[in-house]
Amino acid sequence: MPLPSPYPNLLDGPSVASTIPSSELHRVFRDAGERERISGVPVTKLHVGEPYFTPPPEVAQALAEAVTAGRTDYTAVEGLLELRERLVEKLADQNGVDTDVSRLFVTPGSCQGLAALMQAVAEPDAEILLPELHWPIHLQQALLAGLRPVFYPLGRDYRTDPKSVLAASTANTRVLLINSPANPTGAVLDTATLSTLIDMARARGWQVISDEAYEHFVFDDEHVSTASLEWDVPVSERIVHSSYSFSKSLAMTGYRLGYVSTANDRTAHAFRIVQEANLIAMSTPVQYAGLEALRLGHVVRENRAMVLSNRDAVLPAVRDAGLLPELPAGGWYAVLDVAPTGLTAEEFATGLLETRNVAVVPGTGFALMPRLDARGRVITVEPAPWSRHLIRIAMCVAPSVLRSGVRELLEFARERPGTAR
Ligand SMILES: Cc1ncc(COP(=O)(O)O)c(C=O)c1O
């Protein structure tokens, strides 16, 4: 006989986490690996944001030296002071962001920094505004933090229109997520749009989380850090919390190194508590690697040039085939619309993998719209109908891989009955 629950109202159903959809990215990752294993034929991987350029050797050396020299004790929960001081300087010099070591935290990848930020700002029943086409991990993080996601529509070019953000907001809105350059769309927001969004947020008492993982991959303009627009605002009135990463700029994906600058001391305090509970501390040797990486600005510029050259060499053919409205203005990805083939994204991705050994991600995985119960558990989840012909490809892969993968993709598309060109 089941024991009576001491918490009958809490334990009468599944946990919130168990109801959250797994990321489509991870599913495709597994499918591609499985296909390689069974067929023995290598899959052309356009699905994953893993760069072909590698972390600089100086960074690996700094990591090894830290380990062999025994610099392996716990650091403070905020991270190594020396690294945080350098990051404060970097943010001031390169991003125009005014911060202080007391508000700056080193994190194990920016993914964890973003999750911790959401936990730090979450309030009961609070809503977070996410772009309707978003990185699926933002959605998972919001749900885990207890924030209720509300989606704002994007324009034809996938850029954020402040009017649509306002129209989607409600009396319960507390947080606005901005991701520029964006994953998956590559959309980049300009100063005017960011200023309007911050003014709107401040007037309504919202917090802003600015995910700038792709800050160094803006192709046609300069990157604008959202928090730079608060330079003149007193610290206690600032609302923009920013997250940055070493993964993209220096290809340090597996090092797991990122950092967060909280807007004000209140959020810094809450963030510290979240990290005390989640981390104890960052990996110490990895932070020494980060110190070395900060000296390598030229590598960051070279990495940007490689992705830009990939974009310009390969994506115009996709645009000319009618599958890509515009070249992405930033980031590592492009969102293709395969509607002219008459196939859904799922059919396209499966067919491409099975017949041409090329892996891409269906865009539906970036447009999931969950419905929640009163406690924040997901009851149903459906992709937005307009996403059913979208797929995402990564353009940070080796030029030869991108060229051959896209050639196969275009041939596959041309063979479909509905394809015009
Ligand atoms: C938009 C966005 N933000 C954050 C991250 C997290 O990167 P990391 O945890 O490696 O710093 C990613 C990784 O793909 C991303 O696409």
From TrEMBL:
Gene3D superfamilies: Type I PLP-dependent aspartate aminotransferase-like (Major domain) (3.40.640.10). Pfam families: Aminotran_1_2 (PF00155). Its cofactor is pyridoxal 5'-phosphate. It comes from the Bacteria. Its EC number is 2.6.1.-. Keywords: Aminotransferase, Pyridoxal phosphate, Transferase. It is an enzyme of class 2 (transferase). The keyword DNA-binding does not apply. InterPro entries: Aminotransferase_I/II_large, AspAT/PAT-like, NHTrfase_class1_PyrdxlP-BS, PyrdxlP-dep_Trfase, PyrdxlP-dep_Trfase_major. One of its GO terms (molecular function) is transaminase activity. One of its GO terms (biological process) is amino acid metabolic process. PROSITE patterns: AA_TRANSFER_CLASS_1. Residues 43-378 form the Aminotransferase class I/classII large domain. PANTHER family: AMINOTRANSFERASE, ASPARTATE AMINOTRANSFERASE. Belongs to the class-I pyridoxal-phosphate-dependent aminotransferase family. This is Aminotransferase.
